[in-house]
Amino acid sequence: MHSSEADGNRREGRTASKRVADSRTEVTRNVTEGDMNGQGRLFGGRLMEWIDEAAGIAARRHCGGNVTTACVDQLVFHHPAFRNDVVVIDARVTHIGRTSLEVRVDSYVEDIARSSRNLINRAYLTEVFVDDGGTPRPIPYGLDLSSDAERDEWRGAERRRQVRRQRLEEGF
Ligand SMILES: CC(C)(COP(=O)(O)OP(=O)(O)OC[C@H]1O[C@@H](n2cnc3c(N)ncnc32)[C@H](O)[C@@H]1OP(=O)(O)O)[C@@H](O)C(=O)NCCC(=O)NCCS
Predict the structure, then answer these.
(1) Cα of 64 to ligand 1 centre, how many Å?
(2) Host domain of residue 27
(3) 97 touches ligand 1 (CB under 6 Å)
(4) Beta bridge partners of 68
(5) Which of 4, 23, 85, 91 is the most exposed place for a label (fewest CB within 10 A)?
(6) CB–CB of 92/23 below 8 Å?
């Protein structure tokens, strides 16, 4: 276990952990007429809906209960998708706070003929574990990090948390 992650688990008094793989969520969608904008491309709002859905499922799998989305960073579209394209949304938990967790969501358009994927967007969502009344509650599970990539993501998430906190303080 990475030291800052172990510190985080101790600080929150958690005794149980889950692996990133336990909650990783892949959603596959076919782009249909109703998903397209006036220029014949995938509508950005529809992709946002799919990203939010995948992040929510991954977060619920990790926490074992309901979550709500607090923040989305960020929507930059690197690659277009068109009608009948296959879009793959891959969501994984990167960091656990006290009541919130960060989920990285990569969206790809799949080239079926070449068996390859082009990245459309990478987003980081902050999901908050909530009770039935929508009040934040402590996440019962820590995160077991099992690769250098997962440890790098955890460290990156800690920096992103600081940036978000600063943005909130500045009313941005
Ligand atoms: C998200 C929400 C539950 C947070 O409630 P709150 O009273 O501000 O709770 P807190 O200040 O205790 O924050 C709870 C956690 O959320 C995080 N958080 C709150 N606002 C955040 C923001 N804008 N960006 C990133 N994280 C945020 C806090 O850092 C904290 O995390 P931690 O416990 O891991 O340190 C509340 O703002 C809410 O219900 N928002 C609407 C969510 C919604 O409806 N989403 C659907 C999209 S429309």
Answers:
(1) 18
(2) 3-167
(3) yes
(4) 128
(5) 4
(6) yes
Give 24-44 pLDDT, tens digit per residue: 999 999 999 999 999 999 999
Ligand 1 site, residue 136, Cβ cutoff 6 A: yes
100-114 confidence digits (pLDDT tens): 999 999 999 999 999
Q: How far is the CA of 53 from the centre of ligand 1 (A)?
A: 17
Q: Kindly report each contact of residues 50-53 with a partner whose C-beta sits within 8 Å and lies 24 or more positions away, as own/partner.
A: 50/87, 50/89, 50/107, 51/89, 51/91, 51/105, 51/107, 51/121, 51/123, 51/125, 52/125, 53/27, 53/89
Number of domains in the chain: 1
Q: What is the CATH number of the domain that holds 82?
A: 3.10.129.10
Confidence of residue 15 (pLDDT cuts 50, 70, 90): confident
Mean pLDDT across 164-172: 92
